[in-house]
Write a structure and sequence with these properties.
Layout lengths: L3 E6 L3 H12 L5 E6 L2 H10 L5 E4 L8 H9 L9 E5 L4 H9 L4 E4 L4 H18 L6
Parallel strand pairs: 1-2, 1-3, 3-4, 4-5
Helix pairs in contact: 1-5, 2-3
Amino acid sequence: MNSLKILLVDDNPGDVLLARKMLSKSTVPCSLELAGDGGAALERLASGPAPDLIILDLNMPRMDGLEFLRRMKSDPRLLSIPVLVMSSSRAADDVLGCYERHANSYVSKPADASGYSAVMRAIEEFWFRTARLPSA
């Protein structure tokens, strides 16, 4: 199996550290790229090979996750890249807004490290082992 390329779009250093730690324990080979906001993520998508999966936070400076989704999913070259939204927001409007902008899933960020670990294991199981990604 080739290494999965994951683009993590999140401005929270603690969440980035937890994601990096959890993905380093994955039995599926993967590489992680980082973008601190939606604008940086769009710049990355314009300049390099497409990732296999994007994990996106909503609340970020400069360009938030909803605006990123709107712009990304309006570009036919980027439309098929799966986007998993992982946010601390539990607001129904945020969840609906993400799906209206073609997010592929919405996961609530847990409040503690053990919960984060469990969510990352579930992401690994579904996205890395069960789902078939467009890049496969």
